[in-house]
Amino acid sequence: MALPPINPTSWTFAETYVAEDEVLEAARARADEVGVAPLGSGAGAALRFLAAALEARAVVEIGTGTGVSGLWLLRGMRPDGVLTTVDVEAEHQRLAKESFKEDGIAPQRVRTIAGAALDVLPRLTDGHYDLVFADGDKREYGAYLDEALRLLRPGGVVAFDNALWHDRVADPAQRDDDTVAIRELVQRVNTTEGLVPALLPVGDGLLVAKKEWTPASE
To answer: Which of 87, 107, 186, 212 is the most buried (most CB within 10 A)?
Structure first.
């Protein structure tokens, strides 16, 4: 028996269950100023939980923005963990550094790399990372998955924001390039051997998948 859809009141309650503080609010204000759309607070709380559950020491972020998602990730990571965050906009990364500084995060805990993700990711170390979070060019999501599977250690997790893409992914009539790319990613993650997937209805949708310790066929 199918459950009835969650009502807006309950959704809002869940989305704001973990409240954001002044540092995150300031990071969101910076995002508004430069036209960046950061992930929602519910997705941020989910990322923090994942980083904490993994006891993440090394995390890759695709799409720095003004530091909203980075703050959530860093707050869940180990105290000695390092976030490697990639963005094509150096100005956005400058604003993100302000957010990290306001949160008292030591500079050595964040490695910012300005550049296109598909130019930067191949230079990172295979099997070194606990968590890869992608919130970049939606048409490149499939390529990000390829890189994430290489970068993650066994037991690591990949996460993609905007997995529901403003309710367009679930609507087969929507055929724009971004929607099709995300829809194909969602289907691929669900059928890829060696991944344990889940699609979380937080924010605009958070697609997560664990890289199994051994291939499912073994």
So the answer is: 87
Instruction: Find out whether 68 and 31 touch, Cβ atoms under 8 Å.
Output: yes
Tell me the per-residue pLDDT of 152-183, one tens digit each, with 9 for 90 and over.
Answer: 999 999 999 999 999 999 999 999 999 999 99
What are the tokens at 100?
């990290």
The second-level CATH assignment, the architecture, of 8-211 is 3-Layer(aba) Sandwich (3.40)
Q: Where are the chain's structural domains?
A: 8-211
CB atoms within 10 A of CB 26: 20
Contact present, 121 and 143 (Cβ < 8 Å): no
Task: Extract the tokens encoding 136.
Answer: 């970049």
Distances (CA, A) of 37 to 56, 95, 178: 25, 14, 15
Give the C-alpha distances (Å, rounded to integers) separating 127 from 148, 197, 211.
9, 19, 11
* 57 touches 82 (CB < 8 A): yes
pLDDT digits (tens, 9 = 90+) for 95-154: 999 999 999 999 999 999 999 999 999 999 999 999 999 999 999 999 999 999 999 999
Which tokens sit at 98? 């302000």
Tell me, what DSSP letter sits at residue 35?
T
